[in-house]
């Protein structure tokens, strides 16, 4: 955390910690290293950053947001209509395979 204070004092970004956390996650996932970005954050800052991003994703992507309506609801509607069509004998489709990005799956989860 002392290294962070030294770096932060030279920068004027108000919300620097959450973005440092994003870089920490990237370096941990891709390179399996915590000595680059993660070492600049204290355990408390890591937890608070995770909470920050959880809230950010929730309010941007959760039920009722316009983006959720455009992406998540369309997929669920297609899925439900496909299952109903099959159950009631109105469809000959045996499989409806979809490919999605993790971002799209978050819409369905929330």
From TrEMBL:
Q: Give a GO molecular function annotation for the protein.
A: acid phosphatase activity
* Keywords of this entry: Membrane, Signal
The answer, when asked if DNA-binding is one of the entry's keywords, is: no
Taxonomically, the superkingdom here is Eukaryota
GO cellular component assignments: membrane
Where it mainly occurs, coarsely classed, is membrane
Keyword flag Membrane? yes
The subcellular location is: Membrane
Return the protein name.
834_t:CDS:1
Specify the species. Answer: Funneliformis mosseae
